[in-house]
Q: What sequence folds into this?
């Protein structure tokens, strides 16, 4: 049963509680001595906290001024963020323009524009797997990585893995090309959905795409450790060494070391570009 006191806005399902309420000071005090409870939203008053609590569950009136101020503040912050993003985007666009126009000097003292390189890759190196597919197809053995002890040995082992697998592909089907000029500046041209080029050196070491590829490669090494035919203790030791060696602050060094070490890929693209230029001149 439900027992309610209309005078005090009190209700209960237990008769004993109701009887106790009828004897209480709250019930028997004069009406004008009640403490009023106010709703902060709509300013309505209630004689009890229970009444206010029930009201608050239904009250939807809010302080419009505060809401407007909050909305204005949010809009201002969003505008500042958008403007900042636009500035960064403009800086990136200008940087890309400068990079694309930067002439690249090969060992034959020829000047080759990066746009020319990308055009050649897109037109003549189109039937190429992506770097992700290349890494996915690699089966890493214990012999490939057993010598990893520190960053230098890690670079050497990962280098050897990539070089060994790259040799299995025709030059025109390799997923990336690393070229270096006589000033030891280097670039990597990488096949994703399209060919993109990244600086390894001489451009603020700003190569996020290659960083991501190295992390993926290390992830593949970890996956293959799990299926190697070695005891669990050796697996755990390998993973521990690899984790300590490939910490975030070592990725840039590992990335640079890996791509500098791919000597089979260093000058092939340069020579093809040079030969292509000579053929055009002859014609």
A:
């Amino acid at each position: 049963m439900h027992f309610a006191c209309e005078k005090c806005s009190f209700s209960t399902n237990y008769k004993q509680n109701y009887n106790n309420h009828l004897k209480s000071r709250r019930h028997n005090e004069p009406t004008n001595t009640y403490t009023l409870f106010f709703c902060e939203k709509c300013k309505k008053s209630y004689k009890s906290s229970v009444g206010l609590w029930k009201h608050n569950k239904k009250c939807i009136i809010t302080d419009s001024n505060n809401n407007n101020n909050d909305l204005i503040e949010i809009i201002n912050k969003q505008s500042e963020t958008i403007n900042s993003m636009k500035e960064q985007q403009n800086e990136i666009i200008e940087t890309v323009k400068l990079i694309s126009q930067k002439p690249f000097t090969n060992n034959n003292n020829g000047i080759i524009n990066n746009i020319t390189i990308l055009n050649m890759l897109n037109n003549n190196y189109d039937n190429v797997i992506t770097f992700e597919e290349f890494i996915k197809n690699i089966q890493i053995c214990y012999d490939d990585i057993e010598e990893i002890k520190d960053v230098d040995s890690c670079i050497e082992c990962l280098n050897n893995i990539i070089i060994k697998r790259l040799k299995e592909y025709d030059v025109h089907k390799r997923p990336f090309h690393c070229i270096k000029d006589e000033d030891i500046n280097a670039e990597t041209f990488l096949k994703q959905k399209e060919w993109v080029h990244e600086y390894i050196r001489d451009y603020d070491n700003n190569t996020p795409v290659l960083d991501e590829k190295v992390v993926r490669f290390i992830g593949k090494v970890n996956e293959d450790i799990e299926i190697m035919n070695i005891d669990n203790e050796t697996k755990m030791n390998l993973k521990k060494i690899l984790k300590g060696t490939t910490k975030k602050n070592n990725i840039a060094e590992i990335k640079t070391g890996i791509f500098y070490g791919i000597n089979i890929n260093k000058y092939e693209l340069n020579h093809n570009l040079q030969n292509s230029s000579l053929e055009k001149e002859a014609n």
User: Anything to note?
Assistant: The mean pLDDT is 75. Residues 68-101 form one domain.
